[in-house]
Every structure is written in C-alpha cells, then in structure tokens.
Design brief:
The complex is a heterodimer of chains A (about 80) and B (about 220). Chain A has one helix at about 45-55; strands at about 1-5, 10, 15, 15-20, 25-30, 40, 65-70. Chain A has about 80 residues and is mainly beta. Chain A has a domain at about 1-55. In chain A, strands 1-4-6 form a three-stranded parallel beta sheet, with no helix packed on it. In chain A, strands 2-5-3 form a three-stranded parallel beta sheet, with no helix packed on it. The longest helix of chain A has 10 residues, at about 45-55. Chain B has one domain: Rossmann fold. Classes of the chains: A mainly beta (about 80), B alpha/beta (about 220). At the A-B interface, strand 4, strand 5, strand 6 and strand 7 of A face helix 1, strand 1, helix 3, strand 3 and helix 8 of B. Strand 5 of chain A pairs antiparallel with strand 3 (about 75-80) of chain B, so a sheet runs across the interface.
C-alpha cells in the first residue's frame, strides 16, 4: 500500500508493507502484519528537494530538560472546578 | 468556569476570537531537533505485557516518521489530527451573542470514537495549547477514559516565556528521545497553561511528571 502526498485516508489499515509520503493525511489505525513487514517514509519530490536545501539550517539543539515535581500553585485557575 | 477565568482566556486568545484556518500549501519552516526526556521515558514504557499489540494514539498531524518508527516496534498506531479536525465549521453552533463555538457533542460524535481502555499510550503533543476552549476539558476527559489504567500520555505546553506567537508543530520522532519539530502555519496559541492549570486539567490521572526544557516547553508525562 502506498499513500501519496495528496492522499487522505480515513479508516483502519492492516497490511504487510506501507509506504507513506510526507503530507498524506491519515485518520485511523495502522497495523503492520507479518515477519517481513514494515512501514516506509517517502518524501514527495518537491519536499525532498527543498529539504535538501534547508538541511544546513536545521539545528540540533538540545532542550536540556530537567524534571521536577510540580507543587500546587496558590493562584486561582480558570480550569479550577468550582 | 469563573468569569475572571473567561476573561483570562479571552486575553490569551487576543481580539480575534474566531478560529484560525490552516493555510493550505503554506511553506514549511525549517525543522528543528530537540532532545526530549519525557519522550524517552514515554518510549521506554511502550512494552507489551502479553500477546496483544500495544496501541498508541497520535493526536498530531500525520507523521510518516512516527508511523514507521512505532510500527517497527510492533506497535499498532492510531492517528487522529484532532486540531485540524477542530477547524471544521460543521461542528460549530451559534451562540446567543452570534459567535460560533464548537459543540463537543457534535465533535466527539465523529472524532475519537474509541471504547474505554483502548490505548496503552497517547501522544497529545502541544495540541491543548491550540485547541478551541470548548474542547479542552471534554477532550482530556475522553482521553483519560480511552487510556488503559497505568497507560501513559505525553503532552507539551508552552511556557509564558515562549511567547504568544509560538507556532504549532508537527512532531516527528526521529529517535526514541529526539524529536524533529516542523512548524505549521495557521494555528494560534490559544492559552498558556501554568503548572496549576495542568494539575487541574489532568487531575484524574494517577501521576504527572514534569520536565522543563530550556526552550520554554514543558513536557508532562501523565500516568492514568
């Protein structure tokens, strides 16, 4: 199965192999079955060309995230259930 | 919701009030990569406990990269681009003041129709920051119901410092803890959640773990 850039697919897919072009719209479930199964990403030609041009501007920045436990905020909230 | 709360929401929305339309054919901005500790933890939890496949729901715009990576892990991937769907005027009803507002009942009649305890994990991304107000709470309640007990939900929230012009992004999982963000034009940040808002919104979840990034994105990993 191959989903092209302009493709809109609504529904569930069960297949051994699927190729999805960047830009395809999918709503549903994808189930890949079998031992020799896989999903592939394929860039549309126009996108692939522009991606090649902009590759140098892609930054590899790291978020450097740190985790913490949130403490209750004393201020009121618009999402408070009242 | 209190009236001061409504005012605050209106302030965040700006003067416009109407929902932005996704600009078709808009040129995509350069993609950027970010390391995500929350995503790394989310991915590590995607382990099957039995013969049944793990089910993951991706609520962002369709990402072939995510589908390829997750299906390669043996995951059954579900995709619903909930924010784009919310732009459909068929779900809106006219209010007393003449404005249009999305009716959650109409919206959920055609979106996210899944049984309870369907998903092992949900990728919520930063959808909540851009979603129309009337859908936020009902959507979170629905997600909580669809998620299996001990299932994980990963959400991102922009902090105040990120600025009101923060672009909505398509999230591509390029490695288990590295995301590629592809900005998408046409969606406006609707609100900024602080920790208290997030705690309230996801109050029915068993736990919430926060990861604060230097890029003003707060990752939150929720466990049902």
């Amino acid at each position: 199965m191959e989903l092209r850039k302009s493709c809109t697919l609504m529904g569930d897919v069960s297949t051994q192999r699927i190729v999805i072009e960047d830009g395809a719209f999918f709503k549903g479930a994808i189930d890949i079955k079998g031992n020799d199964s896989r999903a592939e990403v394929r860039k549309p030609l126009a996108v692939a060309a522009s991606a090649g041009m902009s590759a140098g501007s892609t930054s590899g920045s790291s978020s450097g995230a740190s985790s913490y436990s949130a403490s209750p905020d004393p201020q009121g909230s618009f999402l408070d259930s009242k | 919701m209190s009236s001061s709360g409504n005012n605050l929401m209106r302030w965040f929305r700006g003067a416009g009030g109407s929902q932005p339309k996704a600009e078709e054919g808009a040129k995509s901005a350069p993609r950027t990569k970010r390391t995500c500790i929350g995503l790394g933890e989310f991915m590590r939890n995607l382990t099957s406990s039995g013969e049944q496949k793990i089910c993951v729901l991706d609520l962002g715009p369709t990402s072939p990269t995510n589908i390829a990576l997750l299906t390669e892990m043996g995951v059954r991937v579900f995709n619903e681009d909930i924010l784009t769907e919310s732009q459909d005027s068929n779900y809106s009803v006219k209010q007393e003041d003449g404005s249009l507002q999305i009716d959650p009942t109409k919206f959920f009649a055609e979106n996210l129709n899944y049984p309870a305890d369907q998903f092992d994990a949900i990728l919520f991304w930063d959808v909540a920051d851009y979603l129309p107000e009337s859908l936020v709470k009902p959507l979170v309640e629905r997600l909580q119901c669809m998620l299996k007990p001990k299932g994980h939900l990963l959400a991102f929230f922009h902090t105040k410092d990120a600025g009101g012009e923060s672009l909505y992004s398509r999230h591509h999982i390029v490695q288990k803890d590295i995301l590629e963000l592809e900005p998408i034009q046409g969606f406006k940040l609707q609100r900024i959640f602080n920790n208290r808002h997030i705690e309230n919104l996801f109050k029915d979840f068993a736990s919430r773990k926060f990861f604060l990034g230097r890029d003003n994105i707060r990752e939150v990993l929720m466990v049902r």
